[in-house]
Amino acid sequence: MRPLLPFRSRIAAALLASLAAASAADPLKLDLQDAIRMALGKNFQIRAERFTPQIARAKQLSASGKFDPVAEVSVTYDENNQEQRTLNSELNTPTAVPGGDTPFLFARTSGLEVDASIAGLTPWGLTYDLDASATKNTDNRLSDDKYNSFLGFNIAQPLLKNFGTDANLAQLRIARADRAISEWTLRDRIIRVVTDTVDTYCELYFTKENLGVEERSRELAAQLLSDNLKRAEIGVMSPLDVMQARSDLASREERVLVAKRNMLDNENFLKQLVTDEVFRVLDTRIEIASLPELPNVKADREKDFPLAFQMRPDYRQALLDLQKRQINVVFSRNQALPRLDLVASFGVNGIDSSLADSFQRVTGQANYNYSWTAGVVGSLPVPNREARGQLEANKFEVAKALVEIKRLEQLILVEADNAAGQIDTTLKRIEATTAALDYARKTLEAAQARLASGTTTTFEVLQFQRDLATAEISRIRAQADHVRAIAEYARVTGLTLAKNGISIE
């Protein structure tokens, strides 16, 4: 059974639940800047992408671990038991005993070895192994134990293949490039989410205002139908005019339903961007403010276009990818060389009846129990097709990446120019649609006056009502498209974060 909460705790829990329910019922009111701030803090795409630089940082740390020394300690005990015939010390033959049996001697040898070593690799390709060991050997046929101490090292220095930092730091340098790419990937994700937030906010604003226009248009059609019914009752209007008004009202009702569905869809899209709700996301309501005052933004091609090559994440990623491919070319060129390694080893032994004495023999100046080796090891696959083929493939990868960068540079200039043109076009559209809306409103007012005086038809008034709705929608569309064009221009020039005052830590 679940334990009961204290009275005060139950009251607090009830209050929290009621506050949560109230907050869930209250709509989320925000303007465009609020939407951007919420997207930066709660958007799942950004929150997931923030792990990418951390993953790359961890992989870089893993790549640098290639040069970590490896310390190893081992303790080994071995024992050997066997029976041996007793030999006559003078004749070196088995000694006979009464009864014809030959006696056996039970021999047992054992050893205990403790070994410690440190091995590793240097950025120049030198591999080293420093080893120290102590061994105790025991034989039951001898009166004392023997101790053997050893101290030595082995080194191998490549002279061709695997020589130098270009070969041994290649993976670490690639990991560093991947880390830089991951940071630009995060920046690109943030830019795209901010741009998507602006687009979706503008689209929600448009569909919301469009719904208002369609509802007002429906009210005009309903009012016209009501007026026509009254005129028909007194015999000054034909049934055809009434049927036309009814038909148009039904058509506008359908447009209202479609407009409302579009608004709700875009509200859901915006909630996906600015909230981290999962199961309650559909219960959250959003109320947005009007679009911000139309900013006086003009595209500066001479200033902004060069910045695009510095701030566009995709371009910076392409340059880093080219750097990675060039590192692979240098590495594969080294791997195509013959193997020629300089190897050397040196060791000192100390054997005595005690461990301390054996160590003293190892470290003593007059110790002649040593050994050393030096030599050269070489090899070359013939005809070395694997390494040569990999080198050629990596060179072609670099050539391909250079072509892709040129294509991207062309794309950036075209996108930036198109986006700059859209800003100019949408400003002119706003001016044109504002004038068209004013004319459509005046035309409808004149047509309604003429209908009241009987000098025009219901069909013409309905057409002018539709023209007014179209003009209103076109003006709203132009306003929303202008804000979106500004956001798109900031994206294609890589200035989204700077324009919105966003910094990435």
Number of helices: 13
* Strand order within the widest beta sheet: 2-3-4-5-7-8
Q: Give the CA-CA distance, first to last residue.
A: 48 Å
Q: Tell me the overall shape.
A: elongated
The ordered string of helix (H) and strand (E) elements is: HEHHHEEEEHHHEHHEHEHHH
CATH architecture of the largest domain: Up-down Bundle
Q: Considering the protein shown, what is the CATH homologous superfamily of the largest domain?
A: Outer membrane efflux proteins (OEP)
The tally of strands reads: 8
Averaging pLDDT over every residue, what do you get?
Answer: 85
Strand content range? 15-25%
Determine the oligomeric state from the structure. single chain
CATH class of the largest domain: Mainly Alpha
Unreliable stretches (pLDDT < 50, length at least 5) are 1-12, 14-19
Rg on CA atoms, Å: 43 Å
Largest sheet: 6 strands, antiparallel
Look up the CATH topology of the largest domain: Outer membrane efflux proteins (OEP)
Classification by helices and strands: alpha+beta
Q: What is the helix content? A: 55-70%
Q: How many domains? A: 2
Quick structural summary:
This protein has helices at 7-25, 32-42, 44-49, 51-64, 165-168, 170-233, 239-274, 301-311, 313-335, 355-363, 385-453, 458-492, 496-499; strands at 28-30, 70-85, 104-121, 127-139, 146-158, 286-288, 339-352, 370-379. It is an alpha+beta fold and 505 residues long.
